[in-house]
Design goal:
mainly beta, three-stranded antiparallel sheet, single chain, Immunoglobulin-like
Length: 131
């Protein structure tokens, strides 16, 4: 059992309540959809959290495995991450990665993993990018 101290309009109220061990961290849910438009792969995120919550999520892009020829030439897509802040009960954003570059292309299966500030997986998705 943890003690909860609440200040309301200058009054101090003391009491004992049962608080879950992770109650300090808001419950955050993420939905993820992906699409391909032209030479860009898109990830659309919706973060749902308590009304006054704020925090960070990380969008981790995992490209297709490069071929031996791409590695030898030094022309292949690499993993990347983006840290994004959310505020409030419903927050939407999108992230993208380019597929085609001068001299090489990153077609194949792309993956996205969305992580919370502690590195816990909140959502993941995959999409096939055609040649």
């Amino acid at each position: 059992m943890k003690k909860l101290v609440v200040a309301v309009c200058g009054l101090l109220l003391l009491g004992s309540v049962v608080v879950a061990a992770d109650a300090a961290k808001p419950t955050v849910k993420v939905s993820l959809t992906m699409s391909v438009t032209g030479d860009i792969v898109w990830a659309y995120l919706t973060v749902k959290a308590p009304a006054n919550a704020s925090g960070m999520v990380t969008v981790k892009w995992i490209p297709p495995s490069p071929t031996t020829e791409q590695v030898k030439a030094g022309k292949y897509c690499v993993e990347s991450t983006y840290d994004l802040k959310y505020v409030g009960p419903r927050w939407r954003t999108k992230a993208n990665r380019r597929i085609h570059y001068e001299g090489f292309s990153c077609t194949g299966t792309w993956s996205v993993v969305v992580l919370d500030a502690d590195g816990n997986e909140l959502a993941k998705g995959q999409i096939e990018v055609p040649k």
